[in-house]
Amino acid sequence: MRFLGIGDSCDLGALYLRLMAEGHEVRIHIGEKRCQGTLAGMVPRSADWRADLGWIRQAGADGFLLFENVAEQRGALQDGLRRDGFQVIGGSEFGDRLENDRAFGQALLAENGLTITPTFSFDRPEEALAFLDRRPARYVLKFNGGTFGSSENYVGHHPDGQDIRAVIEARRAPIAQAGASFVLAQHVDGVEIGTGAYFNGERFMEPACLDWEHKRLFPGDLGELTGEMGTIVTYERSSSFFARTLKPLEPAFRAHGHCGYVNLNTIVDEHGIWPLEFTCRFGYPGFAILGALQETGWADLFQAMSRRAERLATRTGFAAGIVLTVPPFPYTRKQIDEKIGLPIFIAGGADEHFHFGEMGLADGRLVTSGLYGWTMVVTGTGRSIEQARLDALARAERVSTANLRYRRDIGERVASDVARLEAWGYLDR
User: Fold this and answer.
1) The pTM is what?
2) The domain that contains 179 carries what CATH number?
3) Are residues 348 and 317 in the same domain?
């Protein structure tokens, strides 16, 4: 089979290496100049992915385009390539809007019978400040699109919203200069849990997964909001939760021809499920952690999606994933000039639970590369959450490079979260 990966920073590096290990042909296009060292010497490059479309078309039913990330007009581009007869897995224009336009996503959820948290959209800081004068409360500030990174979002703590007000006032100039839109969502206390599934163009493949993300940089959920520092996932006991969240949205994704992974993050309390936001593309590090529980290999999964299969084979138990980073994470080398090309050592060598991220080869040695300092993900599995997290942690301790950072507490709080979900009746019995 042939696969052409298209993205800005080679976010699916571990997946490409898996495909090549299975004997498939892979080429990747990396749009960002600062990321050209990622997977250097490891995966063949495509200097111009459009010029390689003929290479994919020659493979017929065995040729696939894999789009990595949400970017301007990229969803619409994928829709057009599907109309041209290509097998495209990644996202869609509809999925991009759900992810980038939070108010649009909340409206879709409400239209399909899900209970949403009160969410208010703003195009200018002054509008939000006036709103806070009228409706003081505890809110979460989230920016639409990719103008501001995850670390710029803010979870309010004060019941009158004074800390949200202070954050908006402090950022008034850059928000206005960027023309960034944003939302204020009313804060809900509870358990944060996501559910995800692969959409094959017509329906969600089952089983769906359940996931518990750890988004802040430091243990104890302190520090900057990152994309993700680690996650616990399982495919078990997910049917009821999936039926109440993603499943009702199936007709909408079908109508827009979406083909790829979809995740819905939620807050749950004893009163109900409160959907927060969509991810309508491969998740990072989610794809790697899910891979640890999927008996269906990546190539077979993509082929099954193209054939509209309804199920994939998964393993029981839990998988834990830990993101291993180096500076400038959670920022970028556009903001902070950090060295790359530093050697990486894995005691005992790597196995299938080491998922390479921003790494490359130099003089036959693994080295750091890329824009973010998102070095790799290590995974572990087990019948229990504790077994999975300790398995992953043991692998993380085998990795060494300059200024390596990761969280050692991934999964510690999840067992108590699961107990609360069970008590509230959200998990399959």
Assistant:
1) 0.92
2) 3.30.1490.20
3) yes
> Hey, what are 146's tokens?
């990719």
pLDDT at 79 over 90: yes
Question: Which segments within 282-327 are labelled E, that is strand?
Answer: 318-325
pLDDT value of residue 395: 98
Distance, CA of 108 to CA of 103 (rounded, Å): 9
User: CA 117, CA 190: separation in Å to the nearest integer?
Assistant: 13
Three-class secondary structure of residue 211 per DSSP: strand
Q: Is the dihedral of CA 250, 103, 96, 281 positive or negative?
A: negative
- List the one residue out of 192, 153, 152 whose CA is nearest residue 275: 192
pLDDT given at position 151: 75
Are both 293 and 204 inside the same structural domain?
yes
Which helix (H) or strand (E) segment holds residue 289: the answer is helix 286-291
Q: Is 252 exposed, middle or buried (0-12, 13-18, 19+ CB in 10 A)?
A: middle
Q: Which of 168-182, 256-270, 278-292, 333-347 has the lowest mean pLDDT?
A: 168-182
- Same domain flag for 168 and 196: no
Shared domain check, 249 and 131: no
Pair of tokens at residue 315: 């393993």
- Distances in Å between the Cα of 302 and the Cα atoms of 1, 134, 167, 205 are 10, 50, 43, 11
pLDDT (tens digit per residue) in 66-75: 999 887 789 9
Same domain, 376 and 231: yes
Do 298 and 236 lie in a common domain? yes
**Single-letter residue type at 202:** E
Tokens standing for residue 177: 């200069």
Q: Which amino acid is residue 412, in one-letter code?
A: E
CB-count burial class (<10 Å; 0-12, 13-18, 19+) for 86: middle
254: burial class by Cβ within 10 Å (0-12, 13-18, 19+)?
A: middle
Q: H helices of 145-193, where?
A: 162-170, 172-178
Structural domain harbouring 54: 2-98
